[in-house]
Write a structure and sequence with these properties.
heterodimer; A: mainly beta; Immunoglobulin-like; 12 strands; about 50% strand; globular; B: mainly beta; 4-stranded antiparallel beta sheet; about 0% helix
Chain lengths: ~120, ~120
């Protein structure tokens, strides 16, 4: 089974600064998808960004971008120009591209991001 | 934007009782899921459902749990004989797969289950 590791339980960033959240994963598959989800205090799961493993180009969504290193099995999230509303729990997730997995998401334990004024 | 709707948002039940958590997935999605998040812990996969049957389930999803799509729109999770450790946030999700351009996953807002 694939495992997703987020080695930073907590991170802190000052407003307007940049922060990078780490994620590594373990898989023997060559085709898969990776995601970052944001969970604010409301506990809703909000998709931040996603990456297809077969694409070499790193995904970007406004202030959010990823550094996808397939050989290193690393998928970090960079948040630029941090805002107070970015404070939340961030989960990295893996999903197999094959149908035999039922397309289930496998989550890391999360990183709690604190944004200070 | 289409949403996954979950009801109720919060349910309190007595230990040993049965609960049914309800979800309305996005209408053109084909896969449906239930996930669980115990407070302060990571989100855990319970079960996926496709073509009116379970396609995958985790070790957590034992005989205490069952899922059903009774009427073509609702997707339910039934927990029989609830235990204190079943207290958690339960998320429903749906996705449309089969196309590389559309592998999106949409979560509902969750049902907070408290077993007392």
């Amino acid at each position: 089974a694939q495992t997703v590791t987020q080695s930073q339980p907590e991170m802190s960033v000052q407003e307007a600064e940049t922060v990078t959240l780490s994620c590594t994963y373990d898989t023997s598959e060559s085709d898969y998808y990776l995601f970052w989800y944001k969970q604010p205090p409301s506990r809703q799961m909000i998709l931040v960004i996603r990456q297809e493993a077969y694409k070499q180009q790193n995904a970007t969504e406004n202030r959010f971008s990823v550094n996808f290193q397939k050989a290193a099995k690393s998928f970090s999230l960079k948040i630029s120009d941090s805002q107070l509303g970015d404070a939340a729990m961030y989960f990295c997730a893996y999903r197999s591209a094959g149908s035999n997995s039922g397309y289930a998401l496998n989550f890391g334990k999360g990183t709690s991001l604190l944004v200070t004024p | 934007e289409p949403e996954v709707t979950q009801t109720p948002s919060h349910q309190v039940t007595q230990m040993g009782q049965e609960v049914i958590l309800r979800c309305v997935p996005i209408s053109n999605h084909l896969y449906f899921y239930w996930y669980r998040q115990i407070l302060g812990q990571k989100v855990e996969f319970l079960v996926s459902f496709y073509n009116n049957e379970i396609s995958e389930k985790s070790e957590i999803f034992d005989d205490q749990f069952s899922v059903e799509r009774p009427d073509g729109s609702n997707f339910t999770l039934k927990i029989r004989s609830t235990k204190l450790e079943d207290s958690a946030m339960y998320f429903c999700a749906s996705s449309s797969v089969g196309s590389r351009s559309n592998y999106g996953y949409t979560f509902g807002s969750g049902t907070r289950l408290t077993v007392v």
